[in-house]
Structure formats: structure tokens, C-alpha cells
Predict the 3D structure of the following.
Amino acid sequence: MNLQLRKANLEDAEILAKIGWQSFDEAFSDHPENHPDDMKIYMDEAFSVETISDDLRDEKTLYLIAEADGEAAGYVKMKFDVRETCVSGEKTLELCRLYALDKFIGKGIGKSLMLEFFKIAEETKRDTVWLGVWEYNYRAQEFYRKFGFEKCGEHVFQLGSDPQTDWVLQKKI
Ligand SMILES: CC(C)(COP(=O)(O)OP(=O)(O)OC[C@H]1O[C@@H](n2cnc3c(N)ncnc32)[C@H](O)[C@@H]1OP(=O)(O)O)[C@@H](O)C(=O)NCCC(=O)NCCS
């Protein structure tokens, strides 16, 4: 598999909306804690072309797309200079989303995106990177632990009408 990472631009809004929607659906729709109505409310807003286009116009937000043999297979979204109160750094970079499509999971896409995320954090002289991960997302928690993230607190992730609990994890750079 030939894997390439590239920075997204405004022309990628549609493909990011498509793989954003699909990968979130694949990851969470079957989970018994998630009600289909809440999933739909959240996804319709979060993965609309308009929402992604707004992100792509925001100078504090950056997306990288992973392409496997030319096909969009995963992405990472990051945001500069925002943080939860438990995050101890000043110059922060949030890993807002990290997703591979189901058929590509376990093929190194998450790792490649994470290593590039760390590289950008170093290049932009961040002191701390952080993220939120659902309390029931054990696979992702284990993945992040492997990359050195540690829990510093919790926050609410609003899925439609359902206030869910995310763990907040951070890592010093
Ligand atoms: C989390 C996710 C991005 C990881 O990406 P991935 O492409 O599947 O992971 P990779 O194949 O790059 O694996 C990287 C390393 O982590 C390890 N790893 C991956 N998943 C793991 C798990 N559940 N437990 C332990 N190790 C794991 C791999 O073995 C690999 O280790 P190695 O480099 O020593 O071989 C991916 O599973 C995903 O998209 N999941 C669904 C969406 C999601 O939950 N996103 C996070 C939301 S917070």
C-alpha cells in the first residue's frame, strides 16, 4: 500500500465530509450507548460540507488527509492554541479528530497521521498536545497510551441530546 499524507485545502471539504461521516458512523453507530437520533443530529452538523469548509478557512485549524493508493483512507484534524483547563501547557495543539476508515484500520494509517501530528507540534514549537477520547472507546485509548498520552481530566462531549464523557489526555512535547 502506497500511503501519502497531505495538508487539506478548501477543495477537500467534500471528501473530508464524506470520510468524516463514514468513519464516525463505522466507529460508533453500532455501540449500544449511542442512540441513532443523537448520532444523526451530531453527524449532520459535524460532517456537513459547510462545517468542514468553515474549519478549512480557520487559520487555527489544520487537516491532514491520508491517501492509500490514491484513495482517501483517513484524516487528522488539529487546532492550535485551545485547551481544556486540565491541560498544563501554554502553547498547545489539540488533536481534534483522528480517524481511519474501517477497511484501513490496523494498517498503519493512524500511526502515520499521529507521527505527522507530532512533527507539526514540534515544528510549531508546541509544549503540549492533547485530545478528548470517549470513555468507552477502549481501542483508541490503548492506541493513545502507546503514543505517550496520559489522562489529566474529563469533559462533556455533546452527542445530539446525550452529554457523553470524554477523557482528556495530554502529552508533553
Ligand atoms: C484509533 C485509530 C485512528 C488507530 O489507527 P490505525 O490505523 O488503526 O492504527 P495503526 O495501524 O497505525 O497502529 C499503530 C500502532 O498502534 C497499535 N495499535 C493500534 N490499535 C491498537 C489497539 N487497539 N491496542 C493496542 N495497540 C494498537 C498497532 O499495533 C501499531 O503498533 P506498532 O506500530 O507497534 O505496530 C483507528 O483505530 C480508528 O480510526 N479507529 C476508529 C475511530 C476512532 O476511534 N478514532 C479516535 C477517536 S478519539
Residues 3-172 form a domain with the Aminopeptidase fold (CATH 3.40.630.30).
